[in-house]
Design brief:
about 700 residues, Aldehyde Ferredoxin Oxidoreductase Protein, subunit A, domain 2, 6-stranded mixed β-sheet, about 35% helix, about 10% strand
């Protein structure tokens, strides 16, 4: 057998109904790169239109890409692909988690794991290299994720990596997660695992991933040392520094003299973090203080993260007050994992039990621990906005049975007491009462509870389309660029390519110079809150971002860091290297590939997802059925006197409907899709090697005329 590089060469398949286990050749999917691309190809080929996400016929893929497990920086992501329960048309979607699961999967010899069918009883999957068994899970069914991981590790050893669901997934909540490690969760597909009666996958690998040219990889890693910044590829610090020409208080490069991991023993000072000092990269992002405020410094034990990542963006805290509530004092999370509990407590987490100024941190830690252990997903913070809306507008009082409404401790919510979170999360995760339907997702609860335009069109609800997903770096992120990117997914966009660009913390003139180099004109990018009308260069920016997002989720690289638009070094003229993905692929696989070829492969995946939407919605008119935004996005703001602020006025980020319509057509044209409907044309599908997709759609009358 010839040596394969980057790829292991095997996809593990498990039929839970029959108990059959087998492998197939990864390279039958090579045109789809890996990770996300393979998962979407399997959905197209094997899951019929009209399948419910919780049907046994649905399949779920855990995917890693060819760069995973090779030592390429920030390559430890796992991409999970299946039908989305929250989607009103059960569209295809991916969720993502960091940690070490995907690397262990590669070391065990697999590029992807595909689960299909349904087990007649609760099971967990045990994988030790080429030994794969389906084990009885009744002893862990009903357990929280923390206990589940510990119990499986007691069987397999501490080196094993575990991906598990909690009670929320077991109870098939649409908004549930699959989680690995202390804080890495993939939102949206926990219920799919639960529907198959799979509690967890435990995996231990003793192999390795072969690299064609290790020396070239090491040389590229040395180059990366000159380019990589802090979390979200922010390359300027948050404070004046002796080495920095620029700084920005909003930067995630928070490490500085006098800022500590205060709960470490002894405390560790983050220090100046000079960009040339590669040993301080892991101290640049003191994310606890960014997420929770300076009061979190004394609770921070260290920063944690994912395999092969020097950035370490997950803050690991010790919050002793949690022991009073029967919880472990150690908490780890980042970003929305911390923000969502505070969103549920929409009146703010206030002082309680004598915690004083620390009460918000303690309350947030309680909420984060509960959500992670129960396996609940916040839908990028939407669950908190929904609680606020339904409570303040009287929806809960209208739709909940009177006895149930009276049993809920609303007084704790009013007081800002996070003990409300304990009651709330337990009710919802265990499907106790009508309130649990809040985890169906916005599109489904709007239908169930009779919510109308006032719900969808309320700006504070931040719902982007009637698909039921919220803003995630949308019109506030480069105007039409972020707004249009948000129209093409079946869940929140999860695309940080454009956000990393505009969020570099470098001055706008440098960003515009790079935009001109990349997209053909500095007009691809506007200054913040000074948005101009749509143009072709912005459409190129949108296409670039969509392609690179799919590329990273297929390679698998962290799109919270990649691509490397910029560098912190003035000596590099602040330029990064946007060909690094291709250079790493060449070094790892031994097959020469250009950035253009790699982007073309990713474009194939973007278009395949588009075709999946055409099929699941049974219409070619995606412009109106899928991509149309909610009214609040194109409704002008008003000033303090009530006068309308016209779109494109400096200071507003509200979009204009005609301009958005123009932008959609421009993006469709960039991809070679039908400019009227947004559906892929037959010629484009054939050019991308998707002939079978074209034939299937044509047979169903779903190719635009």
């Amino acid at each position: 057998m010839s040596t394969t590089y980057g790829y292991t060469g095997k996809v593990l398949r498990i039929d839970l109904g029959s108990g059959e286990v087998w492998t197939e050749d990864t390279f039958k999917y090579k045109d789809f790169i890996g990770g996300e691309g393979i998962g979407y190809k399997i959905l197209w080929d094997e899951v019929p239109a009209g399948t419910h996400p919780f049907d046994p016929e649905n399949k779920i893929t855990f995917g890693a890409g060819p760069l995973c497990g090779t030592g390429v920086p920030c390559s430890g992501r796992t991409t999970i692909i299946s039908l989305l329960p929250t989607s009103p048309h059960h569209g295809a979607g991916s969720s993502h988690m960091g940690g070490y699961f995907s690397v262990e999967m590669k070391y065990a010899g697999y590029d992807s794991i595909v689960l299909e069918g349904k087990s007649p009883k609760p099971v967990w999957i045990r994988i030790e290299d080429d030994k794969v068994t389906i084990e009885d899970a009744r002893w862990i069914w009903g357990k929280g994720i923390f206990d589940t991981m510990a119990m499986i590790s007691s069987q397999m050893g501490k080196e094993a990596q575990v991906a598990a669901i909690g009670p929320a997934g077991e109870n098939q909540l649409n908004m549930s997660v699959i989680r690995t490690g202390t804080s890495h969760s993939a939102g949206g597909h926990g219920g799919v695992m639960g529907s198959k009666n799979v509690k967890a996958i435990g995996i231990r690998g003793t192999g390795s991933v072969k690299v064609a040219d290790p020396k070239a990889v090491m040389e590229l890693n040395t180059l990366m040392d000159q380019i990589i910044g802090a979390n979200n590829q922010m390359v300027a610090p948050s404070h004046p520094a002796p080495w920095a020409e620029y700084y920005s208080p909003s930067s995630r490069w928070t490490g500085k003299p006098g800022l500590f991991w205060g709960a470490a023993n002894p405390p560790v000072e983050t220090g100046e973090c000079y960009p040339e000092d590669v040993h301080s990269i892991g101290k640049r992002t003191q994310k606890a203080v960014f997420d929770l405020g300076l009061g979190a410094e004394k609770y921070t034990v260290r920063m944690g993260g994912c395999a092969h990542c020097p950035i370490r963006c997950h803050s690991q805290l010790k919050v002793p007050q949690l022991e009073k509530y029967g919880m472990d004092p150690y908490v780890s999370n980042t970003c929305m994992g911390y923000a969502s509990p505070r969103g549920v407590m929409f009146k703010g987490i206030k002082e309680f039990d004598g915690n004083g100024e620390d009460s918000s941190i303690v309350g947030t830690a309680i909420g984060a621990t509960l959500a992670d252990d129960l396996g609940m997903w916040c839908n990028y913070g939407q669950i908190g906005r929904d609680v606020k809306w339904f409570y303040e507008k009287g929806v809960f009082k209208r739709v909940l049975p009177a006895e149930e409404y009276a049993s809920i401790p609303w007084h704790l919510l009013e007081k800002g007491d996070p003990r409300f979170l304990i009651d709330f999360y337990n009710r919802v995760a265990h499907k106790q009462g009508e309130i649990a339907h809040i985890a169906d997702g916005a599109a489904w609860i709007a239908k169930r509870w009779g919510l109308g335009d006032d719900y969808w069109d309320a700006k504070e609800n931040k719902l982007w389309t009637r698909g039921g997903y919220p803003v995630h770096h949308s019109n506030e992120s480069a105007g039409q660029v972020g707004a249009l990117i948000s129209c093409f997914s079946n869940r929140d966009a999860q695309n940080h390519t454009h956000q990393n660009f505009i969020g570099s913390q470098l001055p706008i003139n440098i960003q515009k110079d790079v935009a001109a180099e990349l997209f053909g004109s500095p007009d691809a990018l506007d200054a913040p809150s000074k948005y101009t009308r749509m143009n072709e260069y912005k459409a190129r920016f949108v296409k670039w971002s969509l392609i690179r997002g799919r590329l990273h989720d297929s390679l698998t690289l962290c799109n919270w860091m990649w691509p490397m638009h910029f560098s912190p070094l003035k000596s590099r003229n602040y330029r990064g290297d946007l060909s690094l993905e291709a250079k790493y692929m060449t070094a790892v696989t031994g097959e020469a590939i250009s950035p253009e070829q790699l982007d073309r492969n990713a474009e194939r995946i973007v278009t395949l997802l588009r075709a999946l939407n055409v099929r699941s919605m049974a219409t070619t008119d995606l412009r109106h059925a899928h991509d149309a935004v909610n009214k609040w996005i194109v409704t002008p703001d008003k000033d303090k006197e009530g006068k309308v602020i016209p779109q494109f006025t400096p200071g507003t980020i509200q979009m204009e409907q005609a301009d958005m319509d123009l932008g959609l057509g421009m993006v469709y044209k960039q991809f070679g899709w039908d400019e009227k409907t947004g559906a892929p044309t037959k010629s484009t599908l054939l050019e991308l090697g998707l002939g079978n997709v074209a034939a299937d759609l044509e047979a169903s009358g779903l190719i635009p005329a």
